[in-house]
Write a structure and sequence with these properties.
heterodimer, A: 3-stranded mixed beta sheet, B: 137 residues
Amino acid sequence: MAKRRADKTVRRLPHDHSLIRRPLPSSLRQDVYSATGIKPTELDCIEKSNLSCSLSDINDRDLTSGPFCLEITDDPRRHLRFDDTSTNASPTIKVLDTQTVCILSLLDLTGIMEYYNQP
Amino acid sequence: MGLPTYMTELLASHALIFSTSKSDSIVKELCDAQPSGKKIDMSIVRNFTESFVEVPFQLGDFPILGSRLRYIHERMTGWRPLRFGQLFQRPYRDSIPFFAFWFAAVIGLVAVLSLGIGVGQLVYAILMYKTDPLPIP
């Protein structure tokens, strides 16, 4: 009985938690994608879609004057994504902070981003 | 396929979003709302905009982050009020139903008020007639 109660109190870690070992060894490509917060599928879908979408109304003045909010984050995975876990009632768009942008720029400046071209 | 435009896209996304005359005040509010000290340096954004941005951004300028921007655009376009509190927020697209709703609400409120005033006048006239009926000439 006590064991069953103890099992219930154990929290499940998220599947992408760093303590969980991956079934397959990670590659440099996967690690770079993980560090930059990009899913490989994101790169494919933009090429298949039409590119005739104006971005003139995606700016801070229009966004904050409407029902959406902006919030700063340091997680590259959440950059330009909606935060569904936010306590704010309005839909919140996360924007990466400048310090993290500079850190991630090191990947570009060191040439890692252009280095691997093999899948 | 690599990610050769990643840094440029990150800076361009900042330049896209924080490109208005109100950006300084909005960024200040965002930074003040952050207890952890995360901030956006507008001098870097401005420097990038002056140096590299010549024409307005298109979705094709963002091969990596384009899907996220497109999703934001779709959410902005498709937003509709679902709760009572959201009726006070103007949608990003198609503002005519928003203003039509509030125009109708104001007209309806005035009509209800005038009806109430009319009923009050009628009740008052009846009461006055019962207490002190006018003499018939």
